[in-house]
Write a structure and sequence with these properties.
This protein is an alpha+beta fold and 192 residues long. The chain folds into 2 domains: 32 residues; 143 residues, endopeptidase domain like (from Nostoc punctiforme) (endopeptidase fold (from Nostoc punctiforme), Alpha-Beta Complex). It contains 5 helices and 8 strands. α3 packs across α4.
Length: 192
């Protein structure tokens, strides 16, 4: 008899199933990620090079994640091995920075290869401003120690409405995710 459209009711229902705060947080996180992935970003108000970047990245949804994969020409075989020991050598696809490098190349902008290096390009958007300061097409960064760019480990492309175009990790594919899907938000960069 609960209204699961209300967040508090949904949370109470999950809690009733499993009395673990960590479990409730995990389930709500997955719900948020799947909800974000199900909604395509509205590109009607996005023009020029920003639209080119976003369309290029969105056209690659479903391409597998490959550690070290992707370049300005598209998906490529990756390298061995990710911090978790996963090899991209036999997977043709993108890692996070390979996807951003590809999408921006379609708009005539050359990016460095790694997420940490890409954080040095364009106008930085400090993490302290929150994700509300991001605009479609911005790069969005995640770090092990936010505030220390040398620890940036991930990059995505902000799609608007709290979503990013993301090549998240081994075993996934390029997809839309909530900007809260990754931990350690470290701000963004505006190149367009």
């Amino acid at each position: 008899g609960r209204n699961l459209a209300q967040r508090s009711e949904l949370k109470a229902t999950i809690w009733r199933y499993n009395h673990s705060g960590e479990y409730v947080t995990d389930v709500l996180g997955w719900i948020d990620q799947y909800t974000a992935a199900a909604k395509a970003p509205d590109l009607r108000s996005v023009q020029g090079k920003v639209r080119t970047v976003m369309e290029a990245a969105l056209s690659r949804r479903g391409v597998p994640y490959s550690w070290g994969g992707g370049n300005a020409n598209g998906p490529s075989y990756g390298i061995c091995c990710s911090p978790s020991g996963k090899s991209g050598a036999n997977i043709k696809g993108f890692d996070c920075s390979g996807l951003t490098l590809y999408a921006y190349a379609k708009a005539g902008i050359s990016l460095p290869r790694t997420a940490a290096e890409q954080a040095g390009v364009g106008q930085r958007i400090p993490a302290g401003l929150g994700t509300g300061a991001l605009k479609p097409g911005d790069l969005v960064f995640y770090a092990y120690a936010p505030g220390h760019d040398s620890t940036i480990y991930h990059v995505g492309i902000y799609a608007g409405s709290g979503q990013m175009i993301n090549a998240a990790r081994p075993g996934t594919a390029v997809r839309l995710d909530s900007v809260t899907a990754m931990s350690g938000y470290a701000g963004g960069a505006r190149l367009l």
